[in-house]
């Protein structure tokens, strides 16, 4: 236990990372696949000539279906996630100006009772909605730590058992059904860096 890294008391991310990896109910699968393709096409078409950004911004369109339709409550999700990933109640998403000691981004998001589960900002699951219902679920995975990725996978599978879901990853331009073991195995390998070119 002494060699394990300490768990975060706050998860603080850059605002650009918000929701780039998402879970959606399976009823949104067709819309989600279309949007992942549209985002990739926009990225390709609008890449800056010098390769350091984009000339136009693509806004990801939310599908018409979300988790509220299934009646998924924060309490149900907490009951399955808390044994897998620790809940981190303090969450922040800011521009770079919000990252310094004592800094506060007036346009940032700060939560003191978030439904966020994970070790730190490199690997977590975040729930959003209006209590008592979850509307959106998204996650981050910027780690090659096999134990953290295994816990993330277990958490994603546990969520899928509550409401069958699809993954939409706008960083990796991937989408697939959580219940498809071949897809999930390949996807988790990509997250861990084993499948990168």
Word description of this protein:
This protein has helices at residues 29-45, 74-81, 146-162, 181-191; strands spanning 10-14, 21-25, 90-94, 109-111, 115-120, 123-130, 133-141, 165-169, 174-177. It is an alpha+beta fold and 197 residues long. It has one domain. It has a 6-stranded antiparallel sheet with strand order 5-6-7-2-8-9, with helices on both faces. The protein has a 3-stranded mixed sheet with strand order 1-3-4, with no helix packed on it. Strand 8 (165-169) and strand 9 form a beta hairpin.
Summarize the helices and strands and which ones pair or pack.
Blueprint: E1 10-14, E2 21-25, H1 29-45, H2 74-81, E3 90-94, E4 109-111, E5 115-120, E6 123-130, E7 133-141, H3 146-162, E8 165-169, E9 174-177, H4 181-191
Parallel strand pairs: 1-3
Antiparallel strand pairs: 2-7, 2-8, 3-4, 5-6, 6-7, 8-9
Helix pairs in contact: 2-3
Give the helix/strand class: alpha+beta
| Percentage of residues in helical conformation | 25-40%
Give the tally of structural domains. Answer: 1
Q: How many whole angstroms does the radius of gyration measure?
A: 17 Å
**What is the H/E string?**
EEHHEEEEEHEEH
Low-confidence stretches: 1-5
Q: What's the arrangement of strands in the largest beta sheet?
A: 5-6-7-2-8-9
- Our estimate of the beta-strand percent is 25-35%
N→C terminal distance: 35 Å
Summarize the main sheet.
6 strands, antiparallel
Could you give the count of β-strands? 9
């Amino acid at each position: 236990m002494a060699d394990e890294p300490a768990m975060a008391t706050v998860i603080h991310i850059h605002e650009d990372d918000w929701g780039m990896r998402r879970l959606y109910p399976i009823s949104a699968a067709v819309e989600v696949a279309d949007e992942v393709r549209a985002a990739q096409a926009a990225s390709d078409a609008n890449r800056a000539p010098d390769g350091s950004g984009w000339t136009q911004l693509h806004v990801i369109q939310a599908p018409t279906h979300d988790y509220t339709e299934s009646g998924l409550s924060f309490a149900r999700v907490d009951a399955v996630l808390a044994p897998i990933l620790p809940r981190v109640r303090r969450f922040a998403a800011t521009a770079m100006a919000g990252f310094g000691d004592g800094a506060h981004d007036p346009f940032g998001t700060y939560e003191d009772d978030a439904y966020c589960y994970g070790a730190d900002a490199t690997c977590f699951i975040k729930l959003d909605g209006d209590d008592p219902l979850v509307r959106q679920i998204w996650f981050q995975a910027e780690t090659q730590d096999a134990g953290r990725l295994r816990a993330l996978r277990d958490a994603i599978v546990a969520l899928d058992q509550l409401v069958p879901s699809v993954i939409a990853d706008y960083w990796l331009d991937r989408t697939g059904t959580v219940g498809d073991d071949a897809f999930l195995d390949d996807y988790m390998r990509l997250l861990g860096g084993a499948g990168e070119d």
